[in-house]
Specification:
Strand content: 25-35%
CATH class of the largest domain: Mainly Beta
Order of helices and strands: EEEEEEEEEEEEEEEEEEHHH
Radius of gyration: 16 Å
Number of domains: 2
CATH topology of the largest domain: UDP N-Acetylglucosamine Acyltransferase, domain 1
Low-confidence stretches: none
CATH superfamily of the largest domain: Hexapeptide repeat proteins
């Protein structure tokens, strides 16, 4: 069932588990040599990202996560439905709470605990505000990459009309998922369902 897409230039070493419907894009490195790396479902690791586990500090990413281009994840944990901005750095023992956004270029220091629904910015990172009450934006980002990689699995790229359809459907499905979560459905259960581009 996996349907996970891993680009041929990505480097995956050691104890690494990647969930269903996820993707690892060009030149990303996942190095689980000193400890393990675990990636959930519908999570995308974008171009030139680096994830490295350290002794006593595994890397664990939940479901519906977008890790932006060039981010570094070192011995950290990211809970469900987060966006990790481009060129950001997450250090050993840091934890990003569910439904949070780490801004572009932010540096999250060792051991920093970010509460759910937070916006994190700066170097060193600070919690600018706790403002995200829903998960729709984060799920939408993850679904866009999921649908995009359905084309990659076929060895093709979407045309302009298909890109529009990807964005429209991702937004609608994210809103539907968010409503289900508000009604008590678990993110873990939603992440087990295979979405179709219809």
């Amino acid at each position: 069932m996996s349907q996970t897409w891993i680009h041929e230039t990505a480097q995956i070493i050691g104890k690494v588990r990647i969930g269903d419907f996820s993707s690892v894009l060009p030149f990303a490195v996942l190095r689980g040599d000193l400890s393990s790396i675990e990636i959930g479902n519908y999570t995308n690791i974008q171009d030139h990202c680096m994830a490295h586990s350290d002794m006593g500090h595994y890397v664990k990413l939940g479901n519906f996560i977008t890790v932006g281009h060039g981010a570094v994840l070192h011995g950290c944990a990211v809970e469900d439905c987060c966006v990790i901005g481009m060129k950001s750095v997450l250090m050993n023992g840091s934890r990003i709470g569910r439904g949070s956004i780490v801004a572009v270029g932010a540096v999250v220091k060792e051991g920093m605990i970010v509460p759910p629904g937070s916006l994190v910015v700066g170097n060193p990172a600070v919690i600018k505000e706790k403002r995200y009450a829903t998960y729709a934006q984060m799920i939408e980002n993850a679904l866009i990459y999921y649908f995009l990689t359905r084309f990659y699995l076929k060895g093709i790229l979407p045309d302009e009309s298909e890109v529009e359809r990807i964005y429209t459907l991702s937004k609608k499905m994210a809103e539907d998922f968010d409503a289900k979560i508000a009604q008590g459905c678990s993110i873990e259960e939603l992440a087990k369902e295979e979405c179709c581009l219809e």
